[in-house]
Amino acid sequence: MDAAPNTDALPDLDTPPNLAAHLSMRKPLTILPDNYRHHRTLDLRRDRRMLVIMNLTAIAFVIPAGLFFGQVLVWVRPGQAEEGLGLNTGLPAGVFVLLIVLIFSILMLILHEGIHGLFFWIFTRSKPVFALKSLYAYAAAPEWYLPRNQYLVVSLSPLILISLLCGLLFVFIPQWLFLPVWGVAVFNAAGSVGDLFVAVWLFLQPGTCLANDRGDIFSLYLPDRNGSYR
Ligand SMILES: [Zn+2]
Questions:
Q1: Are 13 and 35 in contact (CB under 8 A)?
Q2: Which of 17, 80, 210, 220 gives a 20 to 30 Å CA spacing to 142?
Q3: In angstroms, what is the span from residue 113 Cα to ligand 1's centroid?
Q4: First and final CA of the chain: distance in angstroms?
Q5: Please, are residues 68 and 188 in contact by the beta-carbon 8 Å criterion?
Q6: How far is the CA of 226 from the centre of ligand 1 (A)?
């Protein structure tokens, strides 16, 4: 899936000083610079093993995330957290709260992808692509190659912002909303396992790398060491 080399796109990229100057501008590109080579691709449509590992990790992540946000709630609303989390709630109220949790989870999914999309737009000033598949939703910018640090922001922003939002809501919301908001925080964190996985992987790559996100296909491109054409 290498983009075709285009010598007109960035004619000043053939020497390291110009490359460094270019990278300091930190702009996303629609055409891959000629000195960049495909490094690796993560294709969730083909890599079933990776998809299974991610899903199992997400399910396992529910437990520490649940404990963490439960503890946050205890810190923020001491004395109210246990009761508010529905530990004393009867079945009818429990079903009602579960319905609210479901509705909130759908809103969370939209918000999560919306935040990815917002940061794609902030960096590229171009409309991102949204899609809803059977097992997952995504926001993507298939036409763009994003510098590593920008992609890190795109990738981690829903986890950070929604977690902060839920923590803030814990301060104000009535007790009956504790469980739904806690649920949103936990499910968002668990659903961010894929984002975290990509972010950690990306963090270990050179800062000069470019990331291309097509939703279920994520590719990484690295510059030649000497910045020259081949
Ligand atoms: Zn995400």
A1: yes
A2: 17
A3: 6
A4: 18
A5: no
A6: 34
Ligand 1 centroid, distance to 77 Cα (angstroms): 29
Which neighbouring-strand residues pair with 41?
219
Look at the chain and report how many structural domains it folds into: 1
Residue 28, domain member (yes or no): no
What is the pLDDT, as a whole number, of residue 135? 66
User: Could you read off the pLDDT of 73-126 as tens digits, one per residue?
Assistant: 999 998 887 777 766 555 556 677 778 878 888 899 999 999 999 999 999 999
Is residue 84 in a domain? yes
Å from CA of 207 to ligand 1 middle: 21
Q: Give me the pLDDT at residue 192, please.
A: 94
| Span from the CA of 189 to the centroid of ligand 1 (angstroms) | 9
45 or 69, which is more confident: 69
Closest C-alpha among 139, 192, 184, 151 to residue 166: 184
- Measured CA angle at 58 (ends 216, 105), to 5 deg: 85
6 falls in which pLDDT band (50, 70, 90)? Answer: very low
Is the pLDDT reported for residue 26 higher than 80? no
The pLDDT, as a whole number, for residue 88 is: 57
- Going from the Cα of 81 to the center of ligand 1, the distance in angstroms, rounded, reads 28
CA of 154 to the centre of ligand 1 (A): 9
The helix or strand, by DSSP H or E, that contains position 39, with its residue range, turns out to be: strand 36-43
Does residue 12 lie in a domain region? no
